[in-house]
């Protein structure tokens, strides 16, 4: 019998941290969809507009969470590569307030004065500001590197501490994926990573490997899943074949029942975990190759998301990307690391990965 390595960590992030990640995802999702609120006379859909208090807008703009707004923080948030979520009037008000402030920074009290939410009809009583955009997509990606919100950087630091992986390896991996599941939403059982084949190449190291003719696949050594909200009913993360004696793909369909179809067979999963805000899950998608490097795909890491029956499920995925080819991974890190140092002016010494640093045998 093969036992899937799965670590469940309650209270890995606070309720406040989860709320900030959700809000950042909503803003980023709105920027991607660019779906504007209906003008007067248009019929509004039943999807609610985002609503943020003045304090929440201040906190989201305050990237380093020092309680002070600097010009660079405002500009970087309002002029991202994906669009804007502060409209021109908001931006002019805030920047004008900065110019007249002797310190060149805004406290929350200063921000309240310059961010005139009362000019919006119906908002003075509630103190809420309704966004001009609506969310259309159900998932988005959040950058966690330098300049990102302090909460996002903190989550990455905790992942590095927990896994004891080289920080460079984690920092060069995919951004944080944030997903919202509404009533009835689900995902069928799947593997986050892919088995290694001669005709495939890892998406993250393809350019470094000069293998443009090969099929790109995801190479995700481990998954860390964060529950950003609790769910009233449904929405469990299910591992259909965890702890089975053997794994056979054809055995996933039994008597006409497909165990990967979480809509129909969620209750038959060997392991089901109920979403609880603040809890994190960690599992390896690959076995060790016996030398401490990433080996074969762990078939027992097959997992999915049961349909949400009541409430809304917010979660996030953090993946650590590793190429099964140790030399190609090392070359990729040198290549990307040089670009980052050239861009930032930093002269950090690159240290290639050692096998023992990456994987402790299960």
Automatic annotation (TrEMBL):
SMART domains to which the protein is assigned, alphabetical: P4Hc (SM00702)
InterPro entries in the cross-refs: EF-hand-dom_pair, EF_Hand_1_Ca_BS, Oxoglu/Fe-dep_dioxygenase_dom, P4HA-like, Pro_4_hyd_alph, Pro_4_hyd_alph_FE2OG_OXY
Annotated region described as Disordered, given as residue ranges: 343-362
Domain of life: Eukaryota
GO terms under cellular component: endoplasmic reticulum
Record keywords: Calcium, Dioxygenase, Iron, Metal-binding, Oxidoreductase, Vitamin C
Key word Metal-binding present: yes
The Fe2OG dioxygenase domain, residue ranges: 172-322
GO molecular function terms attached to this record: iron ion binding; L-ascorbic acid binding; procollagen-proline 4-dioxygenase activity
Entry keyword NADP: no
Cofactor: L-ascorbate
Start-end of Basic and acidic residues biased regions: 344-362
PANTHER family to which the protein is assigned, alphabetical: PROLYL 4-HYDROXYLASE ALPHA SUBUNIT, TRANSMEMBRANE PROLYL 4-HYDROXYLASE
Protein name stated in the entry: Fe2OG dioxygenase domain-containing protein
Organism expressing this protein natively: Perca flavescens (American yellow perch)
Lineage: Eukaryota, Metazoa, Chordata, Craniata, Vertebrata
